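in:
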């Protein structure tokens, strides 16, 4: 069972993640992507996630969250999958940042599962 953090403030993203991955096989923590605070940092460190989904939008503090996650010892090697609206240069953003993948909105359940599956498999193999 994986611990997954979903940083999102968009209800559609939250609902899609809960429906697509929340079938009891994983623990999903939904956190606000709107502001990086010391409390949020502590929560992420306490959860020690296996996978992170990070919604990108102009209204959120995403770049700060992304760089915090990559700089922190607990999440430095945790796969981060970016989520954003289709039509934006998401693939290019993911490559520039060094993200482990990306998903375009609106999220389809199969698309979400395909993006997360390789990282779950890698986590399972590493734990064995």
């Amino acid at each position: 069972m994986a611990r997954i953090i979903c940083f999102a403030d968009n209800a559609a993203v939250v609902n899609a993640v809960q429906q697509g991955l929340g079938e009891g096989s994983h623990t999903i923590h939904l956190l606000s992507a709107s502001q990086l605070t010391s409390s949020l940092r502590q929560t992420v460190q306490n959860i020690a996630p296996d996978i992170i989904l990070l919604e990108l939008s102009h209204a959120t503090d995403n770049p700060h969250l992304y760089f915090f996650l990559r700089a922190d010892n607990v999440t430095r090697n945790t796969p981060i999958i970016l989520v954003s609206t289709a039509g934006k240069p998401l693939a290019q953003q993911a490559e520039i940042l060094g993200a482990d993948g990306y998903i375009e909105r609106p999220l389809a359940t199969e698309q979400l599962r395909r993006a997360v599956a390789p990282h779950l498999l890698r986590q399972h193999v590493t734990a064995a």
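note: The chain is about 45% helix and 20% strand.
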